[in-house]
Amino acid sequence: MLKKYIIANWKMNLNLAETLSLAKKFKEKFAGFNQGEVVVCPSTLFLIEVNEILKGSIIKLGAQNVFWEEVGASYTGEVSPEMLAEAGCRYVILGHSERRKYLSENYEIINKKVRAVVKNEKLIPIVCIGESLKERKTDRRDFVLVEQLEQALSGIEVFGDQRIIIAYEPIWAIGTSTALEPAEAEYAHKIIKLALNDIVGMQAVSKNFSVIYGGSINSKNVKSFANLEDIDGLLVGGASLKIEEFYKVAKSIVK
Ligand code: 13P
Questions:
Q1: Can you list the pairs that 29-34 forms with residues at least 24 positions away whose Cβ atoms lie under 8 Å?
Q2: Which residues are known catalytic residues?
Q3: How much is the pLDDT for 210?
Q4: Stretch 187-204: mean pLDDT, rounded?
Q5: Could you tell me the pLDDT band of residue 229, with boundaries at 50, 70 and 90?
Q6: What residues pair up with 20 in beta bridges, in sequence order?
Q7: What are the DSSP calls for 216-244, one per residue?
Q8: Does the beta carbon of 221 sit less than 6 angstroms from any atom of ligand 1?
């Protein structure tokens, strides 16, 4: 059975000193923890230094974004998949709803990024999907999820043991302290897996895909997510900024 993913998204919360201090705490606290795959995603700017700290630990490094080209004179300010791999990353978050909201990222752009990362082969993409409150209220959730998956994964071919993680993050549940009801999360994850079956085929889904949940997870509500069959892990924002809190989340989900 695959290990569950417990992914910390530190977003743009921490300065350099805070980032390095938290990375050290993660390394100490998770020494010997082998029941799950723990990933930390700091700011791009601090990846190399966090990688140095995490050397010799079980914790993997992830980035919060990437560009879709490998190299070029026309891409001022961007960072390629290969650059992230060189910095020590093994994972990269793609199409987070905050980027969709503030930077107008859409699923055409996200698809380019997913393709580039899959092609590069050194990084595992964490592809974010999730409905808005309006879409939820108008009962369009299932349709929206299927459409986002179809667009994000259009033209993707997965080879061998390559992994793709789909992160289901209902936009209205992010940073609100109200997580989705576990039964509802379980249902949404079933819809996502069924849609994936149609898009890439059942075999690839069971071999190459994981579906994780994100949105206001904390040490209290995580327990009700632990027994859900279709939840392969968690993407954690706020609760990943405090080591004790995040450790409790990780322990509860792997049980
Ligand atoms: P919160 O856990 O703070 O709701 O953030 C979730 C998230 O956006 C992780 O990517």
A1: 29/243, 29/247, 30/57, 30/58, 30/59, 30/247, 30/250, 31/57, 31/58, 32/58, 33/58, 33/250, 34/58
A2: 96, 169
A3: 96
A4: 95
A5: confident
A6: none
A7: S--TTGGGGGTT-TT--EEEESGGGSSHH
A8: no
For a mutational test of ligand 1's pocket, the pick from 128, 174, 219, 221, i.e. the residue with the most ligand atoms closer than 8 A to its C-beta, is 174
Locate 204 and state its tokens.
Answer: 């690839």
Would the CB of 42 count as within 6 Å of ligand 1? no
- Cα 160 to ligand 1 centroid, rounded to whole Å: 31
Q: Is the CB of 235 under 6 A from ligand 1?
A: yes
Give CATH for domain 4-253: 3.20.20.70
Longest dimension (CA), the chain: 49
Does any ligand 1 atom lie closer than 6 A to the CB of residue 135?
Answer: no
Q: Tell me the backbone φ, ψ of residue 78, rounded to 5 degrees.
A: -95, 165
pTM summary value: 0.97
Per residue in 76-108, pLDDT (tens digit) is: 999 999 999 999 999 999 999 999 999 999 999
The CB of 216 under 6 Å from ligand 1? The reply is yes
Can you tell me the distance from the alpha carbon of 91 to that of 110, in angstroms, rounded to the nearest whole number? 15
Centroid of ligand 1 to alpha carbon of 5 (angstroms) = 15
The Å distance, Cα 180 to ligand 1 centre, comes to 12
* Average pLDDT of the chain to the nearest whole number: 95
| Residue whose CB lies within 8 A of the most ligand 1 atoms, among 64, 169, 241, 248, for a mutation test | 169
Per DSSP (E only), the strands in the chain are 4-9, 36-41, 60-63, 91-94, 124-129, 164-168, 209-214, 233-236
